[in-house]
Write a structure and sequence with these properties.
The complex is a heterodimer. Helices cover 27% and strands 27% of the residues of chain A. By secondary structure, chain A is of the alpha+beta class. Chain A is elongated. In chain A, 45% of the residues are buried. In chain A, strands 1, 3, 4, 6, 9 and 11 form a 6-stranded antiparallel sheet that branches. In chain A, strands 2-5-10-7-8 form a 5-stranded antiparallel sheet. By secondary structure, chain B is an all-alpha fold. In chain B, helix 5 crosses helix 8. Chain B is 77% helix and 0% strand. The radius of gyration of chain B is 19 Å and the shape is globular. Chain B folds into 2 domains: 105 residues, no CATH class; 65 residues, Orthogonal Bundle (Arc Repressor Mutant, subunit A), CATH 1.10.10. The chains are: A alpha+beta, B mainly alpha. Chains A and B meet through helix 1, helix 2, helix 3, helix 5 and helix 6 of A and helix 1, helix 2, helix 4, helix 5 and helix 6 of B.
Chain lengths: 334, 179
Protein backbone atom coordinates (compact mmCIF):
# COMPACT_ATOMS: atom_id res chain seq x y z
CA UNK A 1 0.00 0.00 0.00
CA UNK A 2 1.20 3.51 -0.83
CA UNK A 3 2.13 5.73 2.08
CA UNK A 4 -0.45 8.26 0.90
CA UNK A 5 -3.20 5.65 1.16
CA UNK A 6 -1.99 4.60 4.59
CA UNK A 7 -1.95 8.25 5.57
CA UNK A 8 -5.62 8.55 4.59
CA UNK A 9 -6.50 5.63 6.85
CA UNK A 10 -4.48 7.05 9.73
CA UNK A 11 -6.14 10.45 9.26
CA UNK A 12 -9.58 8.83 9.34
CA UNK A 13 -8.78 6.92 12.50
CA UNK A 14 -7.36 10.09 14.07
CA UNK A 15 -10.50 11.99 13.16
CA UNK A 16 -8.49 14.52 11.17
CA UNK A 17 -9.47 13.54 7.65
CA UNK A 18 -10.86 16.27 5.38
CA UNK A 19 -14.14 15.81 3.46
CA UNK A 20 -12.19 15.72 0.21
CA UNK A 21 -9.81 13.03 1.47
CA UNK A 22 -12.74 11.06 2.85
CA UNK A 23 -14.11 10.80 -0.69
CA UNK A 24 -10.76 9.44 -1.86
CA UNK A 25 -10.65 6.95 1.01
CA UNK A 26 -14.23 5.86 0.31
CA UNK A 27 -13.26 5.06 -3.28
CA UNK A 28 -10.16 3.20 -2.16
CA UNK A 29 -11.97 1.07 0.40
CA UNK A 30 -14.86 0.35 -1.91
CA UNK A 31 -12.62 -1.00 -4.63
CA UNK A 32 -9.76 -2.62 -2.75
CA UNK A 33 -10.30 -5.54 -0.35
CA UNK A 34 -6.66 -5.37 0.75
CA UNK A 35 -7.10 -1.75 1.76
CA UNK A 36 -10.16 -2.73 3.77
CA UNK A 37 -8.16 -5.46 5.46
CA UNK A 38 -5.46 -2.93 6.35
CA UNK A 39 -8.06 -0.49 7.63
CA UNK A 40 -9.57 -3.15 9.88
CA UNK A 41 -6.17 -4.20 11.13
CA UNK A 42 -5.30 -0.61 12.04
CA UNK A 43 -8.70 0.02 13.60
CA UNK A 44 -8.22 -3.08 15.76
CA UNK A 45 -4.76 -1.88 16.72
CA UNK A 46 -6.17 1.52 17.68
CA UNK A 47 -8.79 -0.05 19.88
CA UNK A 48 -6.22 -2.41 21.39
CA UNK A 49 -3.87 0.45 22.23
CA UNK A 50 -6.66 2.45 23.84
CA UNK A 51 -7.68 -0.61 25.78
CA UNK A 52 -4.14 -1.16 27.01
CA UNK A 53 -3.80 2.50 27.93
CA UNK A 54 -6.89 2.58 30.15
CA UNK A 55 -7.17 -0.82 31.79
CA UNK A 56 -4.07 -1.71 33.81
CA UNK A 57 -5.69 -1.22 37.19
CA UNK A 58 -8.88 -3.16 36.72
CA UNK A 59 -7.95 -6.59 37.96
CA UNK A 60 -6.81 -5.52 41.37
CA UNK A 61 -9.87 -3.32 41.72
CA UNK A 62 -12.23 -6.26 41.44
CA UNK A 63 -10.91 -8.63 44.01
CA UNK A 64 -14.41 -9.69 44.94
CA UNK A 65 -15.14 -11.11 41.55
CA UNK A 66 -13.93 -14.65 41.17
CA UNK A 67 -16.03 -16.03 38.36
CA UNK A 68 -14.97 -14.04 35.33
CA UNK A 69 -12.13 -13.99 32.91
CA UNK A 70 -10.73 -10.50 33.00
CA UNK A 71 -8.35 -9.36 30.29
CA UNK A 72 -5.32 -9.22 32.53
CA UNK A 73 -2.90 -6.47 31.64
CA UNK A 74 0.70 -6.06 32.48
CA UNK A 75 1.30 -3.17 34.82
CA UNK A 76 4.29 -2.25 32.72
CA UNK A 77 2.18 -0.81 29.95
CA UNK A 78 0.53 1.81 32.09
CA UNK A 79 1.00 5.24 30.64
CA UNK A 80 2.85 8.10 32.16
CA UNK A 81 0.44 10.79 31.06
CA UNK A 82 -2.99 11.29 32.48
CA UNK A 83 -2.27 10.45 36.09
CA UNK A 84 -4.06 7.81 38.13
CA UNK A 85 -6.78 5.95 36.34
CA UNK A 86 -10.21 5.90 37.85
CA UNK A 87 -11.14 2.75 39.70
CA UNK A 88 -13.34 0.46 37.69
CA UNK A 89 -12.20 2.04 34.49
CA UNK A 90 -14.07 -0.25 32.12
CA UNK A 91 -17.83 -0.42 31.96
CA UNK A 92 -18.17 -4.14 32.06
CA UNK A 93 -15.98 -4.40 35.10
CA UNK A 94 -18.00 -1.72 36.81
CA UNK A 95 -21.08 -3.65 35.81
CA UNK A 96 -19.58 -6.80 37.25
CA UNK A 97 -18.91 -4.96 40.46
CA UNK A 98 -22.55 -3.91 40.49
CA UNK A 99 -23.53 -7.54 40.34
CA UNK A 100 -21.10 -8.56 43.03
CA UNK A 101 -22.51 -5.96 45.36
CA UNK A 102 -25.91 -7.48 44.85
CA UNK A 103 -27.51 -4.44 43.28
CA UNK A 104 -28.53 -6.30 40.22
CA UNK A 105 -31.19 -5.10 37.90
CA UNK A 106 -30.86 -3.49 34.55
CA UNK A 107 -30.52 0.06 35.71
CA UNK A 108 -28.07 -0.89 38.42
CA UNK A 109 -25.66 -2.24 35.86
CA UNK A 110 -25.70 0.97 33.95
CA UNK A 111 -25.69 3.14 37.00
CA UNK A 112 -22.29 1.63 37.65
CA UNK A 113 -21.16 2.00 34.08
CA UNK A 114 -18.44 4.44 33.27
CA UNK A 115 -15.10 4.54 31.59
CA UNK A 116 -12.21 6.90 31.67
CA UNK A 117 -12.76 7.51 28.00
CA UNK A 118 -16.39 8.32 27.80
CA UNK A 119 -18.04 11.68 28.00
CA UNK A 120 -21.52 10.27 28.56
CA UNK A 121 -22.38 8.47 31.76
CA UNK A 122 -25.64 6.56 31.88
CA UNK A 123 -26.93 7.08 35.40
CA UNK A 124 -30.13 5.14 35.14
CA UNK A 125 -31.94 2.97 32.62
CA UNK A 126 -35.19 1.21 33.39
CA UNK A 127 -37.46 -0.62 31.01
CA UNK A 128 -39.42 -2.10 33.92
CA UNK A 129 -38.18 -5.64 33.42
CA UNK A 130 -36.76 -6.00 36.93
CA UNK A 131 -36.73 -4.32 40.26
CA UNK A 132 -39.15 -3.46 43.03
CA UNK A 133 -42.77 -2.79 42.03
CA UNK A 134 -43.98 0.83 42.07
CA UNK A 135 -45.49 1.99 45.33
CA UNK A 136 -48.71 4.10 45.31
CA UNK A 137 -47.87 6.36 48.25
CA UNK A 138 -47.70 9.73 46.56
CA UNK A 139 -43.93 9.93 46.14
CA UNK A 140 -40.70 7.97 45.75
CA UNK A 141 -40.36 7.07 49.41
CA UNK A 142 -38.40 3.92 48.60
CA UNK A 143 -35.25 5.01 46.76
CA UNK A 144 -35.12 1.69 44.90
CA UNK A 145 -38.62 1.92 43.47
CA UNK A 146 -40.92 4.18 41.53
CA UNK A 147 -43.49 5.85 43.77
CA UNK A 148 -46.47 8.13 43.24
CA UNK A 149 -49.99 7.45 42.00
CA UNK A 150 -51.53 4.09 41.20
CA UNK A 151 -49.66 2.45 38.33
CA UNK A 152 -48.79 -1.12 37.50
CA UNK A 153 -46.13 -3.07 35.66
CA UNK A 154 -47.82 -4.58 32.65
CA UNK A 155 -47.02 -6.92 29.79
CA UNK A 156 -48.32 -6.40 26.26
CA UNK A 157 -51.98 -5.44 26.48
CA UNK A 158 -54.72 -3.89 24.37
CA UNK A 159 -52.50 -4.12 21.32
CA UNK A 160 -49.64 -2.20 22.94
CA UNK A 161 -46.28 -4.01 23.04
CA UNK A 162 -43.49 -2.87 25.35
CA UNK A 163 -40.91 -0.96 23.37
CA UNK A 164 -38.17 -3.06 25.00
CA UNK A 165 -38.38 -6.36 26.77
CA UNK A 166 -41.66 -7.77 27.97
CA UNK A 167 -42.85 -5.23 30.48
CA UNK A 168 -43.81 -1.57 30.66
CA UNK A 169 -45.42 0.76 33.16
CA UNK A 170 -49.15 1.41 32.90
CA UNK A 171 -50.77 4.50 34.43
CA UNK A 172 -53.92 3.55 36.33
CA UNK A 173 -55.25 6.44 38.37
CA UNK A 174 -54.65 10.07 39.26
CA UNK A 175 -54.48 9.40 42.98
CA UNK A 176 -52.60 7.28 45.46
CA UNK A 177 -53.33 5.12 48.48
CA UNK A 178 -54.86 7.14 51.28
CA UNK A 179 -54.96 10.41 49.35
CA UNK A 180 -57.20 12.74 51.31
CA UNK A 181 -59.00 14.22 48.30
CA UNK A 182 -59.11 11.64 45.56
CA UNK A 183 -59.08 14.24 42.81
CA UNK A 184 -56.88 15.00 39.80
CA UNK A 185 -56.51 14.48 36.07
CA UNK A 186 -52.77 13.69 36.09
CA UNK A 187 -51.20 10.39 37.03
CA UNK A 188 -47.66 10.91 38.32
CA UNK A 189 -44.90 8.48 39.17
CA UNK A 190 -41.46 9.46 40.48
CA UNK A 191 -38.03 8.06 41.02
CA UNK A 192 -35.06 9.49 42.93
CA UNK A 193 -31.52 9.07 41.65
CA UNK A 194 -28.75 9.63 44.15
CA UNK A 195 -25.97 11.63 42.47
CA UNK A 196 -23.63 12.03 45.40
CA UNK A 197 -21.16 9.44 44.16
CA UNK A 198 -20.97 11.26 40.82
CA UNK A 199 -20.51 14.72 42.30
CA UNK A 200 -16.97 15.08 40.97
CA UNK A 201 -18.38 14.65 37.46
CA UNK A 202 -20.34 17.88 37.62
CA UNK A 203 -18.39 19.84 40.20
CA UNK A 204 -17.43 22.41 37.58
CA UNK A 205 -21.08 23.16 36.80
CA UNK A 206 -20.56 22.21 33.18
CA UNK A 207 -22.57 19.00 33.00
CA UNK A 208 -25.98 18.38 31.57
CA UNK A 209 -28.45 15.72 32.58
CA UNK A 210 -30.50 14.25 29.72
CA UNK A 211 -33.72 12.38 30.44
CA UNK A 212 -35.82 10.47 27.94
CA UNK A 213 -38.80 8.11 28.05
CA UNK A 214 -41.19 6.57 25.56
CA UNK A 215 -44.91 7.11 26.10
CA UNK A 216 -47.79 5.32 24.39
CA UNK A 217 -51.57 5.06 24.43
CA UNK A 218 -54.21 2.64 23.20
CA UNK A 219 -56.20 3.92 20.19
CA UNK A 220 -58.99 6.25 21.24
CA UNK A 221 -61.88 8.00 19.48
CA UNK A 222 -60.47 11.30 20.68
CA UNK A 223 -56.83 10.94 19.68
CA UNK A 224 -55.80 14.14 21.47
CA UNK A 225 -57.39 13.39 24.80
CA UNK A 226 -54.31 12.28 26.72
CA UNK A 227 -50.93 13.92 26.99
CA UNK A 228 -47.57 12.89 28.42
CA UNK A 229 -45.23 14.86 30.60
CA UNK A 230 -41.62 14.29 31.57
CA UNK A 231 -40.01 16.24 34.39
CA UNK A 232 -36.70 16.43 36.22
CA UNK A 233 -35.75 18.33 39.36
CA UNK A 234 -32.28 18.85 40.82
CA UNK A 235 -32.43 18.70 44.60
CA UNK A 236 -29.90 19.19 47.38
CA UNK A 237 -32.01 17.17 49.83
CA UNK A 238 -34.99 14.87 49.61
CA UNK A 239 -37.79 14.24 52.12
CA UNK A 240 -37.30 11.34 54.45
CA UNK A 241 -40.90 10.31 54.99
CA UNK A 242 -44.07 9.71 53.04
CA UNK A 243 -45.97 12.72 54.28
CA UNK A 244 -43.17 15.14 53.42
CA UNK A 245 -42.98 13.68 49.92
CA UNK A 246 -46.73 14.07 49.47
CA UNK A 247 -46.56 17.71 50.56
CA UNK A 248 -43.60 18.48 48.35
CA UNK A 249 -45.01 16.86 45.23
CA UNK A 250 -48.53 18.09 45.88
CA UNK A 251 -47.43 21.71 46.18
CA UNK A 252 -45.93 22.86 42.88
CA UNK A 253 -44.83 26.20 44.30
CA UNK A 254 -42.99 24.48 47.13
CA UNK A 255 -41.30 22.19 44.63
CA UNK A 256 -40.14 25.15 42.55
CA UNK A 257 -38.73 26.82 45.67
CA UNK A 258 -36.86 23.73 46.79
CA UNK A 259 -35.49 22.65 43.41
CA UNK A 260 -32.05 23.92 42.41
CA UNK A 261 -33.14 23.54 38.79
CA UNK A 262 -35.98 21.90 36.95
CA UNK A 263 -37.15 21.08 33.44
CA UNK A 264 -40.39 19.73 32.05
CA UNK A 265 -41.58 18.74 28.62
CA UNK A 266 -45.04 17.79 27.40
CA UNK A 267 -46.62 16.36 24.26
CA UNK A 268 -49.92 14.95 23.13
CA UNK A 269 -50.33 11.19 23.13
CA UNK A 270 -51.61 10.23 19.73
CA UNK A 271 -53.91 7.40 20.72
CA UNK A 272 -54.71 6.35 17.17
CA UNK A 273 -54.60 3.00 15.37
CA UNK A 274 -51.07 2.11 14.36
CA UNK A 275 -49.60 4.59 16.76
CA UNK A 276 -45.99 4.12 17.72
CA UNK A 277 -44.26 4.94 20.94
CA UNK A 278 -43.60 8.64 21.29
CA UNK A 279 -40.35 9.76 22.80
CA UNK A 280 -40.10 12.66 25.19
CA UNK A 281 -36.68 13.97 26.07
CA UNK A 282 -35.27 16.95 27.88
CA UNK A 283 -31.98 18.31 29.09
CA UNK A 284 -31.06 20.39 32.10
CA UNK A 285 -27.78 21.88 33.23
CA UNK A 286 -26.87 20.35 36.57
CA UNK A 287 -26.14 22.75 39.46
CA UNK A 288 -22.99 21.90 41.41
CA UNK A 289 -24.91 21.54 44.69
CA UNK A 290 -27.15 18.78 43.34
CA UNK A 291 -27.27 15.61 45.41
CA UNK A 292 -30.40 14.02 43.94
CA UNK A 293 -32.42 13.99 40.77
CA UNK A 294 -36.16 13.55 40.94
CA UNK A 295 -37.48 12.06 37.70
CA UNK A 296 -41.22 12.38 37.04
CA UNK A 297 -43.31 10.50 34.49
CA UNK A 298 -46.80 11.86 34.03
CA UNK A 299 -49.87 11.44 31.89
CA UNK A 300 -52.92 13.66 31.90
CA UNK A 301 -56.52 13.64 30.66
CA UNK A 302 -57.40 16.85 28.81
CA UNK A 303 -61.08 15.97 28.72
CA UNK A 304 -61.31 15.61 32.49
CA UNK A 305 -59.32 18.78 32.98
CA UNK A 306 -61.54 20.75 30.57
CA UNK A 307 -64.88 19.45 31.84
CA UNK A 308 -64.12 20.25 35.42
CA UNK A 309 -63.67 23.98 34.83
CA UNK A 310 -62.01 25.54 37.82
CA UNK A 311 -62.75 22.52 40.04
CA UNK A 312 -60.32 19.63 40.18
CA UNK A 313 -62.13 16.56 38.81
CA UNK A 314 -62.55 13.30 40.71
CA UNK A 315 -59.41 11.20 40.27
CA UNK A 316 -59.28 9.99 36.70
CA UNK A 317 -58.93 6.32 35.85
CA UNK A 318 -56.75 5.92 32.79
CA UNK A 319 -57.73 3.85 29.81
CA UNK A 320 -54.45 2.49 28.55
CA UNK A 321 -51.58 4.96 28.79
CA UNK A 322 -48.08 3.58 29.16
CA UNK A 323 -44.44 4.51 29.55
CA UNK A 324 -41.32 2.46 28.88
CA UNK A 325 -37.57 2.70 28.54
CA UNK A 326 -36.59 5.57 30.82
CA UNK A 327 -33.00 6.74 30.47
CA UNK A 328 -31.06 9.32 32.43
CA UNK A 329 -27.61 10.29 31.22
CA UNK A 330 -24.99 12.72 32.38
CA UNK A 331 -22.83 14.40 29.80
CA UNK A 332 -20.44 17.24 29.53
CA UNK A 333 -22.09 20.49 28.49
CA UNK A 334 -21.22 22.10 25.20
CA UNK B 1 -34.73 -11.41 29.70
CA UNK B 2 -38.16 -12.65 30.47
CA UNK B 3 -38.48 -12.59 34.24
CA UNK B 4 -36.81 -11.58 37.43
CA UNK B 5 -36.44 -15.20 38.44
CA UNK B 6 -34.32 -15.99 35.40
CA UNK B 7 -32.22 -12.83 35.53
CA UNK B 8 -30.04 -14.04 38.37
CA UNK B 9 -29.35 -17.26 36.46
CA UNK B 10 -28.07 -15.27 33.56
CA UNK B 11 -26.23 -12.35 35.04
CA UNK B 12 -22.94 -14.04 35.85
CA UNK B 13 -22.56 -15.75 32.46
CA UNK B 14 -23.54 -12.48 30.80
CA UNK B 15 -21.00 -10.39 32.66
CA UNK B 16 -18.40 -13.05 32.08
CA UNK B 17 -19.06 -13.07 28.33
CA UNK B 18 -19.16 -9.29 28.08
CA UNK B 19 -16.02 -8.92 30.16
CA UNK B 20 -14.15 -11.35 28.01
CA UNK B 21 -15.27 -10.04 24.64
CA UNK B 22 -15.81 -6.32 25.14
CA UNK B 23 -12.58 -5.27 23.46
CA UNK B 24 -13.42 -7.40 20.40
CA UNK B 25 -16.85 -5.78 20.16
CA UNK B 26 -15.28 -2.36 20.54
CA UNK B 27 -12.77 -3.22 17.82
CA UNK B 28 -15.66 -4.25 15.61
CA UNK B 29 -17.41 -0.92 16.21
CA UNK B 30 -14.22 0.95 15.41
CA UNK B 31 -13.66 -1.17 12.32
CA UNK B 32 -17.09 -0.11 11.10
CA UNK B 33 -15.71 3.42 10.87
CA UNK B 34 -16.72 4.81 14.28
CA UNK B 35 -13.55 6.48 15.46
CA UNK B 36 -14.44 8.97 18.19
CA UNK B 37 -13.95 7.19 21.53
CA UNK B 38 -17.09 8.75 23.01
CA UNK B 39 -19.10 7.48 20.02
CA UNK B 40 -17.69 3.98 20.51
CA UNK B 41 -18.66 4.24 24.20
CA UNK B 42 -22.19 5.29 23.34
CA UNK B 43 -22.69 2.44 20.89
CA UNK B 44 -21.05 -0.04 23.25
CA UNK B 45 -23.49 0.88 25.98
CA UNK B 46 -26.46 0.33 23.70
CA UNK B 47 -25.02 -2.98 22.50
CA UNK B 48 -24.45 -4.14 26.07
CA UNK B 49 -27.96 -3.27 27.06
CA UNK B 50 -29.61 -4.97 24.09
CA UNK B 51 -27.35 -8.00 24.57
CA UNK B 52 -28.42 -8.23 28.21
CA UNK B 53 -32.09 -8.04 27.31
CA UNK B 54 -31.74 -10.78 24.72
CA UNK B 55 -29.14 -12.88 26.46
CA UNK B 56 -31.58 -15.70 27.19
CA UNK B 57 -32.02 -16.11 23.42
CA UNK B 58 -28.35 -17.00 22.96
CA UNK B 59 -28.03 -20.78 22.84
CA UNK B 60 -24.27 -21.12 22.73
CA UNK B 61 -22.03 -18.86 24.81
CA UNK B 62 -19.18 -19.42 22.32
CA UNK B 63 -21.19 -17.45 19.81
CA UNK B 64 -21.40 -14.40 22.07
CA UNK B 65 -18.86 -12.22 20.23
CA UNK B 66 -20.41 -12.72 16.80
CA UNK B 67 -23.90 -12.41 18.24
CA UNK B 68 -23.01 -9.18 20.03
CA UNK B 69 -21.35 -7.79 16.89
CA UNK B 70 -24.53 -8.45 14.92
CA UNK B 71 -26.32 -6.35 17.54
CA UNK B 72 -23.56 -3.77 17.19
CA UNK B 73 -24.06 -3.66 13.43
CA UNK B 74 -27.65 -2.54 13.93
CA UNK B 75 -26.72 -0.05 16.63
CA UNK B 76 -24.01 1.42 14.40
CA UNK B 77 -26.53 1.82 11.62
CA UNK B 78 -28.84 3.69 14.00
CA UNK B 79 -25.95 5.81 15.19
CA UNK B 80 -24.96 6.68 11.61
CA UNK B 81 -28.51 7.79 10.90
CA UNK B 82 -28.64 9.94 14.03
CA UNK B 83 -25.34 11.60 13.21
CA UNK B 84 -25.51 11.69 9.44
CA UNK B 85 -25.09 15.46 9.43
CA UNK B 86 -22.50 16.02 12.11
CA UNK B 87 -19.92 13.31 11.48
CA UNK B 88 -17.57 12.53 8.61
CA UNK B 89 -18.29 8.87 8.06
CA UNK B 90 -17.84 6.30 5.32
CA UNK B 91 -20.38 5.86 2.57
CA UNK B 92 -23.14 3.29 3.13
CA UNK B 93 -21.47 0.92 0.69
CA UNK B 94 -18.07 1.11 2.39
CA UNK B 95 -19.69 0.74 5.80
CA UNK B 96 -21.46 -2.42 4.66
CA UNK B 97 -18.26 -3.88 3.20
CA UNK B 98 -16.26 -3.12 6.34
CA UNK B 99 -18.99 -4.38 8.66
CA UNK B 100 -19.18 -7.67 6.75
CA UNK B 101 -15.41 -8.18 6.52
CA UNK B 102 -15.01 -7.20 10.16
CA UNK B 103 -17.65 -9.71 11.24
CA UNK B 104 -15.70 -12.44 9.47
CA UNK B 105 -12.66 -11.44 11.52
CA UNK B 106 -14.70 -11.75 14.69
CA UNK B 107 -16.12 -15.08 13.59
CA UNK B 108 -12.69 -16.51 12.83
CA UNK B 109 -11.32 -15.11 16.14
CA UNK B 110 -8.82 -13.07 14.13
CA UNK B 111 -9.67 -9.87 15.99
CA UNK B 112 -9.11 -11.51 19.35
CA UNK B 113 -5.82 -13.01 18.15
CA UNK B 114 -4.70 -9.60 16.87
CA UNK B 115 -5.53 -7.96 20.17
CA UNK B 116 -3.68 -10.65 22.11
CA UNK B 117 -0.61 -10.39 19.91
CA UNK B 118 -0.71 -6.61 20.11
CA UNK B 119 -0.48 -6.82 23.88
CA UNK B 120 2.65 -8.94 23.58
CA UNK B 121 4.12 -6.61 20.97
CA UNK B 122 3.53 -3.55 23.16
CA UNK B 123 5.22 -5.28 26.07
CA UNK B 124 8.20 -6.06 23.86
CA UNK B 125 8.67 -2.45 22.76
CA UNK B 126 11.64 -0.53 24.13
CA UNK B 127 10.49 1.21 27.34
CA UNK B 128 10.59 4.71 25.85
CA UNK B 129 8.47 3.67 22.87
CA UNK B 130 6.07 1.75 25.08
CA UNK B 131 5.56 4.73 27.35
CA UNK B 132 5.13 7.10 24.44
CA UNK B 133 2.50 5.02 22.67
CA UNK B 134 0.61 4.33 25.88
CA UNK B 135 0.66 8.00 26.76
CA UNK B 136 -0.62 8.88 23.31
CA UNK B 137 -3.65 6.65 23.79
CA UNK B 138 -4.62 7.93 27.21
CA UNK B 139 -8.08 9.54 27.22
CA UNK B 140 -7.90 13.17 26.25
CA UNK B 141 -4.31 12.95 25.09
CA UNK B 142 -3.35 14.79 21.91
CA UNK B 143 -0.06 14.85 20.06
CA UNK B 144 0.21 18.59 20.68
CA UNK B 145 -0.19 18.15 24.44
CA UNK B 146 2.17 15.20 24.46
CA UNK B 147 4.81 17.11 22.52
CA UNK B 148 4.50 20.00 24.91
CA UNK B 149 4.90 17.72 27.94
CA UNK B 150 7.92 16.05 26.39
CA UNK B 151 9.45 19.32 25.22
CA UNK B 152 9.53 18.11 21.62
CA UNK B 153 8.13 19.39 18.36
CA UNK B 154 4.71 18.08 17.40
CA UNK B 155 5.98 16.68 14.13
CA UNK B 156 8.79 14.84 15.89
CA UNK B 157 6.31 13.09 18.20
CA UNK B 158 4.00 12.39 15.27
CA UNK B 159 6.81 10.72 13.32
CA UNK B 160 7.87 8.70 16.36
CA UNK B 161 4.34 7.44 16.84
CA UNK B 162 4.06 6.66 13.14
CA UNK B 163 7.17 4.48 13.36
CA UNK B 164 6.01 2.77 16.54
CA UNK B 165 2.66 1.95 14.97
CA UNK B 166 4.37 0.51 11.89
CA UNK B 167 6.61 -1.58 14.16
CA UNK B 168 3.60 -2.83 16.08
CA UNK B 169 1.77 -3.70 12.87
CA UNK B 170 4.74 -5.68 11.66
CA UNK B 171 5.18 -7.40 15.00
CA UNK B 172 1.51 -8.44 15.11
CA UNK B 173 1.60 -9.79 11.55
CA UNK B 174 4.76 -11.80 12.21
CA UNK B 175 3.36 -13.28 15.39
CA UNK B 176 0.09 -14.18 13.67
CA UNK B 177 1.98 -15.92 10.88
CA UNK B 178 4.01 -17.84 13.42
CA UNK B 179 0.93 -19.08 15.29
Amino acid sequence: MKRSDLQLIEDYLDGTISPRDLEVLNELLESDATARERFLSLATMDEGLQDLAVTPSIVTDCTGYNGGVYPVRSGSVQGTVGGTRALLSRPIVAAAAGLILGVFFTSAIWAATETGRQKILTLFHDSFEFGSPPVPVGGPVNPDAWGGDYVEISGATSGIEPIHGERMLRFLRADYEGKEDAVGYMSDIYRVIDLKKYSSRFADGNSVVAVEADFGSVPLDDADRFFANLSVYALAQVPTNTQSWQVLIGTPRRMEEVALASARRSRGLEGSPGMSWQKLSLEMRLPQETNYLLIGLHTGDRLAAGESGSETPPAVQFEGQFVDDVKVKLRRGI
Amino acid sequence: MSSEATSSDFHEPFVRALTRHERVIRAYIRGAGITRPEDVDEIMQEVSLVAWRKFDQLDNADEFPVWACVIARYEILMFRRRHARDRLVFSEKVYELLAEQSLEEVSSSMKEKRLNQLQQCVENLPPASRELVTAAYQPGSTIDKLASQLGKKTNTVYQQLWRIRRALEQCVEERLEAE
